[in-house]
Design a protein that fits this description.
- This protein is of the alpha/beta class.
- The chain has a domain at about 15-175 and about 255-325: 3-Layer(aba) Sandwich (Rossmann fold).
- The chain is about 40% helix and about 15% strand.
- It is built from 12 helices and 8 strands.
- The protein has helices spanning about 5-10, 25-30, 80-95, 120-135, 150-160, 175-185, 190-205, 210-220, 225-235, 240-250, 275-280, 310-325; strands spanning about 45-50, 55-60, 65-70, 95-100, 140-145, 165-170, 260-265, 285-290.
- Strands 1-2-4-3-5-6-7-8 form an 8-stranded mixed sheet, sandwiched between helices.
- It is globular, with a radius of gyration of 19 Å.
């Protein structure tokens, strides 16, 4: 049996290109040398929420698209971040329309909705998914999430099996407590400082929603765990950070997953430990795991990639193409096999 496009890419493996050797340089590549991306021509789409606010998404329309991909950024990110846009361009080149969502409080959507997002924020996602189905126009609705964005989409699929027709998670935490502890390691001090600056600034931009206690506490938070204990857990009704990490981590519930999902994880990711991905590999029918040798955290900058593409983007696009072909009613799916 011949291999499909995505499995051929996976089987060939990832090979880092010079000078981006090691997990840290792979992770930092887009920061140290931002890719030259074309002008963003995406159409802004506002999605009303039950709370009265709106979420802002950017719709990159592809003529004759085979499906629409809902694309989600990670912690501290937004729809204009280089890695997200780069993946969006790769998906468009593969024949997909793309909807890049700004989560609550992120990017250009900051003024449209009060508050902040969480790893499990399904009440914000339901109207987005409904609008995305409309934009898909009867074609499949797929998902791709970078880092925490993949965790968020995975949590939605665990609650609602038909939320998406397929999902790819890149460098996405399955165990939030383990991920938080990993980022707190002394070797990751610079990463954590960078993340904390972004998260605190993002929170304070919505001045009216910040309580005096939160404002005082934000001056003293030094870790992701501190931030989640002060801001994320109470705002989303978890009470404390331990309960939040326990209830919003997908790992214990992956056996319930019905949405075909691929997790791409590098073995040298400095943020997300590879151990949980290794533990889940091969355990669940709907949850496929590819662990690359090298690649960092949403890096995957390899030999043979175009200037604004990467191995992870190519793998994502190919897996989603194969997923489209596997869906009921896909062209050629029910055709009788030809004799040879």
């Amino acid at each position: 049996m011949s291999q499909s496009g995505w499995s051929e890419i996976a089987a060939a493996g990832f090979r880092a290109r010079l000078p981006w050797l090691g997990g840290d340089l792979q992770t930092l590549r887009d920061t140290l040398k931002p890719p030259r991306l074309p002008v963003d021509l995406g159409e802004h789409v506002r999605v009303p929420m039950a709370c009265g606010g709106q979420l802002l998404a950017v719709h990159d329309h592809c003529p004759d698209a085979q499906a629409l991909v809902l694309l989600l950024h990670g912690l501290g990110g937004h729809s204009d971040r280089e890695g997200l846009r780069r993946m969006g361009l790769a998906l468009q080149a593969a024949g997909f329309s793309v909807l890049r969502l700004n989560l609550r409080g992120a990017g250009k959507g900051r003024a449209l909705a009060s508050g902040t997002y969480a790893a499990l924020c399904n009440r914000d996602l339901w109207p987005v998914l409904e609008r995305a189905r409309q934009l898909a126009g009867g074609k499949p609705l797929l998902g791709a999430g970078i880092s925490l964005g993949g965790t968020i989409l995975l949590n939605a699929c665990l609650e609602q099996a038909d939320a998406l027709d397929g999902l790819v998670c890149t460098s996405s935490p399955l165990d939030l407590a383990a991920c938080s502890a990993s980022i707190e390691r002394p070797r990751n001090r610079i990463y954590q400082r960078w993340l904390m600056r972004r998260l605190v600034a993002q929170t304070l931009e919505d001045d009216s929603s910040v309580t005096p206690a939160e404002r005082e506490g934000l001056q003293q938070v030094h870790s992701i765990r501190d931030f989640d204990d002060l801001i994320t857990a109470p705002r989303w009704g978890y009470g404390d950070v331990e309960r939040y990490y326990q209830q919003a981590s997908p790992a214990p519930r992956l056996g319930q997953l019905r949405t075909p999902t691929l997790l791409l994880q590098a073995d040298d990711d400095p943020w997300v430990p590879v151990a949980e991905a290794q533990r889940q590999q091969g355990r669940h029918r709907a949850f496929e795991v590819v662990i690359s040798r090298g690649g960092g955290h949403n890096g995957f900058h390899g030999w043979g990639d175009a200037p604004v593409a990467c191995w992870g983007d190519r793998l994502t696009a190919a897996w989603l193409q194969d997923r489209c072909r596997a869906l009921p009613g896909a062209p050629g799916r029910d055709a009788a096999p030809q004799s040879r």
